[in-house]
Amino acid sequence: MKLQENNMQLSQKTLSLLKNFSGINQSILFKGGNKLRTISVMKNILAEVQVDEEFERDFGIYDLNQFLNAMSLYQDPQLDFKNDSYVTILEGKSRSKYFFADPAVIVTPPDKSITLPSEDVCFELNTQQLDKLLKAAAVYGVPDLSVVGEAGVVKLVVRDKKNETSNEYSLIVGETTGTFTLNFKVENIKILPGSYEVVISRKLLSRFQSEDKNLTYYIALEPDSTYEE
Question: For residues 169 and 154, what is the distance between their CA atoms, to the nearest angstrom?
Answer without folding.
Answer: 14
